[in-house]
């Protein structure tokens, strides 16, 4: 079984990397190569790309992202978590959505943050892994079979900033860092297309697009939206994207709903009850 999984992971790593899974980018593809030469020749380029992308993500959802029965989420539970910290509940989350409120940074190698956002009820959630060396990975939800994801990201080596004073270049660089965590060679033609501040001035909503470069030599256009903020001593964002064709036809409103529900907290909170043993005295 171990060898089988490793083979599957290697087969689709180049495609799956565009979806930025939380702790490992390897995803496997069940795409059959038994078609005849004539059949392949008559298949459209788009269908091939979509099949590879979807197949890789489907296999990954069973190999890497199988949720535990303990992974029970919901708007009520997320709001209860926020309330336990004296914070308001999530707003503008549709009734057909689930939600999460989780601590990012339970290990000694990260500063803790309380992250919450809504997402479609049929999406799969993955959380950071914990071991003796600290914490690895991030908070992510997605419908991996379709290439739709929402991923939390902390900008490295960046202190607290005034988000509203930052220009387009700042947000472009932040998002490029987010989508290219494992490699700078998986994308091209990145562009910020729109910026809009939140009503309270704490977040900046950023629309963007880019082209995913696959290991098979194909290019996949992707579009998305992000919510960027700055709490504690850093800059944080939730970015959500899908294949461009799906964005135009279906997911634009969905992804905007997700990122506009996103909240991130740090200042003045006591995280000791939620941290790994040995870290309680640090925060």
TrEMBL record:
Keywords: Signal. Residues 1-18 form the signal peptide. The keyword Signal applies. The keyword Signal applies. It comes from the Eukaryota. This is PsbP C-terminal domain-containing protein. It comes from Thalassiosira oceanica (Marine diatom).
């Amino acid at each position: 079984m171990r060898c089988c999984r490793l083979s599957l992971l290697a087969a689709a790593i180049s495609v799956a990397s565009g979806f930025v899974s939380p702790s490992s980018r390897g995803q496997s593809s069940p795409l059959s190569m038994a078609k005849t030469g004539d059949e392949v020749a008559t298949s459209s380029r788009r269908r091939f790309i979509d099949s590879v992308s979807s197949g890789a993500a489907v296999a990954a959802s069973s190999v890497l992202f199988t949720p535990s029965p303990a992974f029970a989420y919901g708007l009520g539970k997320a709001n209860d978590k926020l309330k336990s910290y004296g914070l308001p509940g999530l707003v503008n989350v549709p009734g057909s959505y689930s939600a999460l409120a989780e601590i990012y940074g339970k290990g000694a190698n990260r500063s803790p943050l309380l992250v919450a956002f809504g997402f479609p009820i049929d999406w799969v959630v993955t959380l950071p892994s914990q071991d003796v060396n600290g914490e690895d990975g991030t908070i992510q939800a997605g419908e991996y079979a379709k290439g739709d994801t929402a991923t939390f990201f902390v900008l490295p080596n960046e202190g607290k900033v005034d988000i509203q004073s930052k220009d387009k270049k700042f947000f472009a660089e932040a998002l490029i860092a987010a989508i290219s965590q494992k490699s700078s060679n998986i994308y091209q033609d990145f562009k910020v297309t729109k910026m809009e501040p939140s009503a309270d001035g704490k977040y900046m909503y950023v629309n963007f697009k880019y082209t995913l470069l696959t290991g098979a030599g194909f290019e996949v256009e992707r579009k998305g939206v992000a919510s960027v903020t700055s709490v504690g001593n850093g800059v944080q964002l939730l970015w959500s994207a899908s294949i461009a064709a799906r964005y135009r036809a279906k997911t634009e409103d969905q992804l905007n709903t997700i990122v506009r529900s996103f909240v991130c907290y740090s200042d003045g909170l006591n995280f000791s009850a939620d941290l790994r043993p040995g870290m309680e005295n640090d925060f």
